[in-house]
Write a structure and sequence with these properties.
The complex is a heterodimer. Chain A is α/β, with parallel strands linked by helices. Chain A has 6 helices and 4 strands, in the order αβαααβαββα. Chain B has helices at residues 2-6, 13-23, 90-94, 110-128, 143-163, 167-176, 213-222; strands spanning 28-33, 38-48, 54-61, 67-75, 79-85, 179-184, 189-193, 196-201. Classes of the chains: A alpha/beta, B alpha+beta.
C-alpha cells in the first residue's frame, strides 16, 4: 500500500467508517463487531475512489438490509441472536453480490472487490445480502 | 415420484378420462380400442348417455402431436388402454387429484416463519374480525423445514379464511377459541383443547405430502 492509499484508508477509517458502523449499531440496537482487512481493500491506483466505493460496496447494502430486518422488534431480536460479527475483505476477487456474502456461526463475511461494480451492483448486493441474512435469522 | 405413484388408488378408465377432461384438457393421450386401432389426441368431451354408457370425443393429433381437424367419437367401453403422453402431473392424474406432488422448498429462516405466523393472525383478523391468535410452534432448525412450515401456514390461513365465511363457523370459533398451535406429527389432526386449537401435521417432514384442504376443513368443522 502506497502513501496515497494509506492516507485514503485512514481518512475513511476516521470519517465514514465510524459513522457507518455507528449507524448500523444504532439500527440494530446492539454492537456488532467489525473486522476489516484494510490491506486487501486498498486497491492500488484507486485511492480517490475509496470514500464512495467502500461505502457503496460494503456498507450501503448492509445498512439497507439491517434497516429492513430491524423494522420491528421481532426482527431486532432475531438479528441480535444471530449476527455477531461482520468481516469485510477483498480476497476472493468477487464482483457480484451473489458470491460476495457468506454467513456462518453468527459471522457475516463480505468478500468483494472494492472498486468494481460499485454503482451497478448496488441493488443486487442489497437484495442478496437481505436474502442471506433472512435465511439465517 | 415412484413412492407417490405406489400410493395412488385404483381407478377405472372412465374416472381417469373424466379427470383429464376436467383438469388437464391439454394432455395428449393415446387410446387403443378393443379392435386394436390406436388414436392419439386430446379429450374434447366425455359424457354419459341415457343408457349410462359413457362416450368420448377425441380430437385426433398427427404424428408430431399437432391437433388435426379429425375427431373420434366412441364409447369408453370400447377403449382397451390409455397411454398418457408427457403428462403434466402424473400423480395427480392417476390419483384423481387426491395425491399431489410434494412442494419444493427453499431455505427460510426462523424470522420469516415468525413473521408468517404474525401475518397469519393479521390476515384472518382483517378478513373476519376474529382473533385466532399467533400460531405457537417449536420451530425446526433446518431451513427447508422452516420453508415448509411457512408454506403450510399460508395454506392453513386460506383454509381458515374460507371456512370462517360461514357465519355459524365464525361465531362458534369466536365463542370457543383464541389461541392456535401447530404441532409436528405424522398424521393430520385438529383438536380443541380449552381455548386453543391444536393442529397436528407433518410440518417438519419435507417429503410428506401437502396438507389436504378438504380434510383440514372437515377436521376444523368437527371441533366448531
Amino acid at each position: 500500500m502506497g502513501l496515497l492509499e494509506k492516507r485514503a484508508v485512514k481518512a475513511f477509517q476516521d470519517g465514514s467508517y465510524k459513522k457507518l458502523t455507528d449507524e448500523i449499531n444504532a439500527i440494530t440496537g446492539y454492537t456488532i463487531e467489525f473486522e476489516v482487512n484494510w490491506d486487501s481493500l486498498a486497491e492500488e491506483g484507486s485511492a480517490d475512489k475509496y470514500e464512495d466505493a467502500f461505502t457503496m460496496v460494503y456498507f450501503t447494502p448492509l445498512v439497507s438490509a439491517v434497516k429492513e430486518i430491524a423494522a420491528d422488534d421481532m426482527g431486532k431480536e432475531a438479528l441480535k441472536d444471530a449476527l455477531k460479527k461482520v468481516i469485510i475483505k477483498n480476497e476472493g476477487g468477487y464482483i457480484y453480490g451473489s458470491s460476495a456474502y457468506k454467513f456462518s456461526n453468527g459471522v457475516l463475511t463480505i468478500d468483494h472487490q472494492p472498486c468494481t461494480n460499485v454503482d451497478n451492483g448496488l441493488a443486487e448486493r442489497t437484495t442478496e445480502l437481505a436474502a442471506i441474512l433472512m435465511k439465517n435469522l | 415420484m415412484n413412492n407417490l405413484l405406489k400410493s395412488v388408488p385404483a381407478i377405472n378408465k372412465q374416472e381417469l378420462l373424466f379427470h383429464i377432461a376436467e383438469h388437464f384438457p391439454a394432455t395428449i393421450i393415446s387410446i387403443t380400442t378393443d379392435s386394436g386401432r390406436s388414436y392419439t389426441g386430446v379429450v374434447i368431451t366425455i359424457g354419459k348417455v341415457r343408457t349410462d354408457e359413457a362416450f368420448l370425443v377425441l380430437q385426433v393429433a398427427d404424428d408430431r402431436n399437432s391437433l388435426t381437424t379429425r375427431f373420434l367419437h366412441l364409447t369408453v367401453g370400447k377403449i382397451e388402454s390409455i397411454e398418457l403422453i408427457n403428462p403434466a402431473d402424473l400423480v395427480d392424474m392417476l390419483s384423481l387429484g387426491k395425491v399431489t406432488k410434494p412442494e419444493t422448498y427453499e431455505i427460510s429462516g426462523k424470522l420469516a416463519v415468525q413473521r408468517g405466523f404474525q401475518l397469519f393472525s393479521d390476515a384472518i383478523f382483517n378478513a373476519h374480525a376474529i382473533n385466532v391468535g399467533v400460531p405457537a410452534m417449536e420451530l425446526p432448525a433446518d431451513g427447508l423445514q422452516l420453508n415448509r412450515v411457512l408454506k403450510l401456514t399460508q395454506k392453513i390461513q386460506q383454509v381458515i379464511i374460507d371456512l370462517l365465511k360461514e357465519e355459524d363457523a365464525l361465531s362458534s370459533w369466536k365463542a370457543r377459541y383464541n389461541k392456535i398451535s401447530f404441532i409436528n406429527n405424522d398424521d393430520l389432526d385438529v383438536k380443541g383443547v380449552n381455548d386453543q386449537i391444536e393442529m397436528h401435521f407433518a410440518f417438519n417432514n419435507i417429503n410428506a405430502p401437502e396438507i389436504s384442504t378438504e380434510e383440514l376443513t372437515t377436521l376444523l368443522m368437527s371441533i366448531l
